[in-house]
Amino acid sequence: MQAHKRSPRKRSLPLAMLMLTVTAVLCIGCTSGTIVAIDMGSEFLKIAAPKDTSIEVCLNEQSHRKSDTWIGFRGEERFFGADAKSLSARFPDAMIPAVPRLVGVPHDAAFQQGWLNKMRYTYHTASSGTTRGTVNVTFPASEGVEERQYTADELMGMMLGYAKTQAEREISGPVRDAILVVPRGYTSRQRQAMVDAAAITGLRVLSFIHPTTAAALQLGLQNRGLGDEPQHVLIYDMGSTKTEAAVYRFDPIATPAAAAKGGKKSTNSFGTISLVGSIASDMTLGGRAVDACLAEFIENAYMTTAPTAGKQRVLTGTTPQSRKAVMSLLRAANKAKEMLSANREAPVTVEGIAQDSDFSLRISRATLERECGGIWDRAVRVRDAALKSANVTLAQLSRFEVVGGGLRVPIIIEKLSEGYNKAGSGVVDRTLNSDEAMVVGAGYYGAALSGHFRIKGFRLVERLGFPVWITVALNSSSNTEATGTAEAPSSQQRKLLFPSEARLPTRLRVRVNATVSDFIVTLDETTNSSSSATIVSKSNTLVSGVLGALQQVGYGDVDAADRNITHTVWVDIRASEAAMVYIEKAEIEIHYFVNASRKVRKLVTPPAEEKNASDGDASASPATEKTTPESGEEQPSTAEDAGGDSASDEGEISDEAPDATTTSSSSKPSASDDITEGAKKASKDSTAPKKKPTYVTVTEVHVEARSRVFPLTLTTTFASPAVPMSKNESILSRDLLRRWRRSDELHLQKSAARNDLEAYLIWALSDGFVYNDEALKVVGSQEEMDTTAEKLRELQNWLEDAGTEATVPTEDLQAKLRQAKLIVRTALREAPTVEETKAPKAPSVTTESAETAAEGEAVDEEIEEGDDDGADSGASRDEL
Fold this sequence. Notes:
Elements: E1 2-5, E2 26-27, E3 35-40, E4 44-51, E5 54-57, E6 67-68, E7 70-74, E8 77-80, H1 81-87, E9 95-97, H2 109-119, E10 124-127, E11 135-139, E12 148-151, H3 152-171, E13 177-181, H4 188-199, E14 204-209, H5 211-223, E15 231-238, E16 243-251, H6 256-260, E17 269-282, H7 287-305, H8 320-340, E18 345-354, E19 357-364, H9 365-371, H10 373-390, E20 399-403, H11 410-417, H12 437-450, E21 453-454, E22 457-463, E23 468-474, E24 495-498, E25 503-504, E26 506-512, E27 519-526, E28 535-544, H13 546-551, E29 566-575, E30 581-605, E31 624-629, E32 662-666, H14 677-684, E33 694-711, E34 713-718, H15 727-764, H16 773-779, H17 782-801, H18 810-827, H19 834-837, H20 850-862
Parallel strand pairs: 3-13, 13-14, 15-20, 17-22
Antiparallel strand pairs: 1-26, 2-21, 3-4, 4-5, 4-6, 7-8, 7-9, 10-11, 11-12, 15-16, 16-17, 18-19, 22-25, 23-24, 23-27, 26-29, 27-28, 28-34, 29-30, 30-31, 30-33, 32-33
Helix pairs in contact: 3-4, 5-12, 7-8, 10-11, 15-17, 15-18, 17-18
Region (Disordered): 605-694, 831-880
Protein name: Heat shock protein 70-like, putative
Signal peptide: 1-27
């Protein structure tokens, strides 16, 4: 097995070399904003989209620039963002955050102990119960609705749908494409799961971008370049549940030295941003880790100082009541952390830490710094790992930019600043917006990818970030028997295919030693470059059709034993711009010889006649022959061409069509032109009589060298847990999300009807009607006004009692509103409107709208055909 580096094909918009705008994005024949950037962390969601001539952060329904990454279910209702978070105190098992961290990971002990418990999340997770081995989240029964389970992919699809709705409301147009900001630590399996989750909600993921890369891009855009000399910039991002750091090199288009030699500075770009080394990360370090540390300190203080009767540990509780206590304790710890960021001391009160019991104490900043010292050390180690990978020191940095909500603790900034003294400040740089730098940078990246915008800015050079290994082995379950003399390969040693520092995008063409049997290509990703490192993602691809292709050229046929058939199998593997590694194609290139025959015409020249008697008897000269092809046949090539190699260069990937192609060359025997002296004299004699030339047709046999290329069949399965969704599972999940979307529309319509009725009754029973002097004059008497007011109060009592029930139909609320308006109009001697007299109408959202149907068609296109394993396509997903 040999790997050959391929030169990337020329593309109109190379993703790894994007030229991104700085001050303006010019829209070319498109509606405003058909692509969005989504930065969905464990705690907060930010969205950015092209609007007018720039990238703008989208506002949510509360007009906030970021939303809480929470989702939950109660009865027949679904809650997002701040609504779900506010209910988490009462229903901790029904409202959950951090959905992106559940996607594409196996549900096993490592997941439970390594992340859920460390982050102190209280919701229930379980295995999906299928061969996929992914995470399911269980939501308890409530308000007459039984317990329900949703896969992490479905929950992520719901969150992305929520983000899509926000963006469409902000830009007043449809959103089809998205750029997702994902941590460097996400494997190909997690990235594929994000793509699947987006597809079932109607979004197409154009690409991913790492948070540090997006922040580096935004830094360059914000500063319109970073000078005329190359600079090294360290970007450090600490979020809620992960921390990443990386060094980027900012290169101007032309340095002063290059300009002195005639180099010109481009007017279309400010330079190149290149990732140096790899991105260092800690996937459990962040603001949540500080909250958990402080919560443990408060719990220990409670166990030490509170009365001992009935006292129990809080953070390890498993009952519903204890989970409420855990949520209360973590909220108190988070509030204390925020207060200590600006104050030396903070009061802490944990409500409901025990049954009918609260707990209060005071915490100083010095206590926080002492108790959580291990976290500060971990933060510094991430910084040092990034510097070591880039082979750069703090003194060599031009900038040290820090972003992320987890950096609001002063001690972290102090620790990270040690050794950095650029411009004499002794403190790290904080010129970027900590919350929005990543999503805005991703927005410009997406604007470039969409193809709708004319771009000016930076050239980006990204790297893979994790090593990928390859193993090639025979398919032990293959029923195909090898024939002939070709030697099939045995199991081969596992080898490094892509190092973690490989540039993106990149391709490799792998040559498999001569085989006539099906074989399996195994690709796996590991945590580091060691061959014994932990495997986090593994796929097996069966390559089949080798023998069938060989048999098409006569392999194994005794009548074709002289063909000297040789072949090479190629496997093309690609690491995309989104850091997703997969097999693009496999093909077999066959070379062989054949005996070919064709008819040719030979020209026969008759002997010359005697010129006169004095010449005597001349012996007949032999006939002169010339060979020409039979009419309509091609002239064969020379014999030297028969041995030529028609195969393409090994280092290139063929751009031929997938159909088999054939090329040939042939040998041609030379004709005999033995002309006698007498014939020469006869030809010179102009008086000699001439005969018409005659031809004979003969059959010639020659050897042709041929080459043919056949595509091979690829069938991919996954050997490790967290298997992607099958086609049928994607369809069922898509239908589930559609039903929830229609249910949300019905609930929204009901809420609007309830609010309209409540607002009208408040108006009518106050200065709007009952206590309005002008209205009293029209009514005529206080007694009649009191009677009218009593009717309105009856409607208000109904609204406060039955009207708040979840089961009340929307049309009943609408009918009560019409009744209230009719009561007021009758008292005011006004004729009722047509709207008030017509019969109640059913809710308008009863069938799938045209917009939803169109979106469904788009989703159908996005869900690629795959294995039909998994759920039965005729089955129905959970009813609402």
